[in-house]
Amino acid sequence: MDKENFRFYIKVRTALNIQAIAIHDELRTVFGDDAPSFLTVARWAQCFHEDREDIQDEERSGRSVAEIIPENIEQVRNIVVDDPYVTTEELQGQTGLSYGTVHRILSDHLKLRKVTARYVPKQLTDSQRSERVQICKENLSRFEDGSWRLCDVVTGDESWFFHQQTGQKASNAAWVTKEDPPPTIVRRDKFAPKTLFRIFFKSTGPILIHRVERGQTVDHQYYIENCLQPVIEEVTKRRPLSGTLAIKIHYDNGTSHAHQAVFDYLRSERVTIVPHLPNSPDLSSCDFWLFDLIKRNLSDQADSNSLHHAIIEFLYSLDKVEFKKNFINGFNECNCV
């Protein structure tokens, strides 16, 4: 039933001296939520009481849709090109067009939508972007021509792990009835107990899971003695014939990682450093795969010792195929840069 039929019904019932509230109840009984609101019924009943005969809408004053003409569309386009952040209200003021006309031009004719800017850690310069592309191409070419192999790459990074787990939003979702209140979970305190771990692995599995003691300063010397040296020793133990020959190590450009003493030590051990993209600490294999996987599978731990054991147990329970897939995915990520 369209709105004109509703109005005709209201007109007839009003002529029979039926009150607006009764007319609304009748319409609600028959049409439910599709019936017009009480205010609409009352407004039209009042109009018919005042001897209105027409049930059609009156012509409204205002600008015509004919304002959507090529000249106005081009005017709006030029303003948006000059200032992509311009608001609809500002477009109204500059063009003299109505809000609806501006909105229709933007959405229907220019096919534009307004999207909130995405925050990024750092705005890269043109030279940094070029360096990104160059490093990715050089690394890819070495893998593609066979001079480098994914199975020879060791990668590692650091991350804080909380002792008590809150889970991710999706894991905290629960089914409730309409009468039940939504579930709640206490936000984790920023000073909650946590421990810093440095983890290194290859495509065949973990190499080192190092726990940093609370209050310990991690400088380049600590990094060499407690991370790189144990990694080199473990690689040598697993490869008694070739040792570190052809081994490549990949980590981000953190301060302790990029020290000259670190470079000198790795060269002395015949280990090649895989260049990392500038200002991209979140593009290491640990950050986009491993750390999140560990945290999603940890249970609450009493202290840093039990947390350390839990992480070791989980990593060594993972199928080696998962580690290999991570390196292949990282290879594909570089291919997309």
UniProtKB/TrEMBL annotation:
One of its GO terms (molecular function) is nucleic acid binding. Coiled coil: none annotated. InterPro entries: RNaseH_sf, Transposase-MT_Hybrid. This is Transposase. The lineage of its organism: Eukaryota, Metazoa, Spiralia, Gnathifera, Rotifera.
